[in-house]
Write a structure and sequence with these properties.
The structure is a single chain. This protein has about 240 residues and is an alpha+beta fold. Helices cover about 25% and strands about 35% of the residues. The chain has a single domain (about 5-240), classed as hypothetical protein yedk fold (Alpha-Beta Complex), CATH 3.90.1680. The chain has helices at about 10-20, 25-40, 40-50, 120-125, 190-195, 210-215, 220-230; strands spanning about 5, 20, 70, 75-80, 85-90, 110-115, 130-135, 140-145, 150-155, 160-170, 180-190, 200-205, 235-240.
Length: about 240
């Protein structure tokens, strides 16, 4: 799984790189959620979001100043809407649309295994319906090395930016006060250099020429979608201990 990732904080730069536009309405809506959360207070937010306890910190955090993104953090992702690629904020951890309560943190709903897309309820309800692309620079994992857990980051050696296929859902609170999109990265078996670093998963770094096809799932057959996910962008990952 991807414990965390690091993205480019310059959205104009990302938009130019991917031929996308930053969706002002989507980011405006996200800011309104942050303001509403502050106005309502922890007890009301707990009830509205279906939490087990009143939150002690924001449930709508945006990526950190250095671009680090953790499960539960909102991050810029790319979707295809109104005949163009758009950058919108989504939470990096799926909240299924029909969930009355937040899924406990012990469950991994931020990484979707490639081999479970058509089997696991959370994924099959959005696979071939809601697809996105997540651009980022590197991903981090805790790995076991010499009987010790170490944080390692993985960087593609042929690009400053990589991207992974993702799936997403739209959740709305029953009280009507909150609604937001949330996504999961699709992961697959790793290349040899990642496996040698003691990690068994890797984001699906799809071929760039397949991005628009992936982002328009209504035009895809199940066979074609799997073809895209297994046709990886050629790269080799550099693996280093995180400071």
């Amino acid at each position: 799984m991807c414990f965390s990732v690091q993205a480019d904080t310059d959205l104009k730069k990302v938009a130019k790189r991917f031929g996308a536009v930053v969706s002002k309405p989507a980011f405006s809506h996200f800011k309104s959620l942050q303001k509403k959360e502050l106005k309502l207070g922890p007890t009301a937010v707990k009830k509205a979001l279906g939490l087990t306890r009143a939150p002690s910190k924001s449930k709508f955090p945006y990526m950190e100043d250095d671009g680090r993104i953790y499960p539960g953090t909102f991050a810029p992702v790319i979707v295809y809407h109104e005949q163009q690629r758009k950058i919108v904020p989504m939470r990096y951890r799926v909240r299924p649309k029909d969930s009355l309560f937040e899924i406990p943190s012990k469950f991994n709903v931020f990484n979707a295994r490639l081999d479970s897309l058509t089997e696991r309820k959370t994924w099959k309800s959005v696979y071939l319906k809601n697809h996105c692309l997540f651009p980022f620079q590197r991903f981090y994992e805790w790995v076991e090395q010499n009987d010790q857990k170490k944080l390692v980051h993985f960087d593609p050696d042929n690009s400053k930016t990589m991207w992974a296929a993702g799936i997403y859902d739209l959740w709305k609170s029953s009280c009507g006060q909150f609604q937001f999109h949330s996504f999961a990265l699709i992961t697959d078996k790793p290349p040899l250099e990642v496996e040698r670093a003691s990690h068994d998963r890797c984001p699906t770094y799809i071929k760039e020429s397949y991005i628009d096809s992936w982002l328009q799932p209504k035009k895809l057959t199940q066979h074609r979608a799997m073809d895209i996910l297994t046709s990886k962008q050629k790269t080799r990952y550099n693996c280093s201990l995180a400071s």
